[in-house]
């Protein structure tokens, strides 16, 4: 919790705009081990901290749907794994 406070305060204080992935969908949780749910509890706490600190410091904070965030081109929006292409690996 102390770590989450430190990171969220640093992020918000040093950036005008912060975006984060929303929590994983319930469907994805079903396919993963309990460790994933525990990780999401921490992520939920972290997102909450970012949200109220953004308000406190007059910064902009938003969450985005995690679907395809590692597969979508930032320029044209093309999604890898579609139209016969292979998905990118991490
Ligand atoms: Zn592109």
Note the main attributes of this structure.
11% strand; single chain; mainly alpha; two-stranded parallel sheet; binds zinc ion; 3 helices; globular; 90 residues; 46% helix
Report on the structure:
This protein is mostly helical and 90 residues long. It is 46% helix and 11% strand. It has three helices and two strands. It has helices at residues 2-14, 26-30, 34-56; strands at residues 17-21, 60-64. A two-stranded parallel sheet has the order 1-2. Helix 1 packs across helix 3 (34-56). The longest helix is centred in the middle third of the chain and has 23 residues, at 34-56. Residues 73, 75-76, 78 line the site of zinc ion. Zinc ion is lined by residues 73, 75-76, 78.
- Give the tally of structural domains: 1
What's the mean pLDDT score? 87
* Topology pattern, helix = H, strand = E: HEHHE
**Uncertain stretches of 5 or more adjacent residues:** none
Reported for the largest beta sheet, the result is: 2 strands, parallel
Explain briefly what this protein structure is.
By secondary structure, this protein is mainly α.
In terms of topology, how is this protein built?
Elements: H1 2-14, E1 17-21, H2 26-30, H3 34-56, E2 60-64
Helix pairs in contact: 1-3
Bound molecules: zinc ion (ZN).
Zinc ion binds next to loops.
């Amino acid at each position: 919790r102390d770590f989450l406070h430190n990171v969220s305060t640093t992020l918000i204080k040093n950036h005008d705009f912060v975006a984060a992935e929303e929590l994983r969908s319930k469907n994805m949780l079903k396919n993963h081990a309990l460790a994933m749910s525990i990780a999401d509890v921490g992520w939920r706490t972290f997102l909450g901290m970012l949200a109220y600190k953004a308000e406190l410091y007059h910064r902009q904070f938003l969450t985005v749907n995690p679907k395809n965030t590692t597969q979508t081109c930032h320029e044209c929006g093309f999604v890898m794994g579609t139209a016969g292409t292979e998905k990118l690996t991490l």
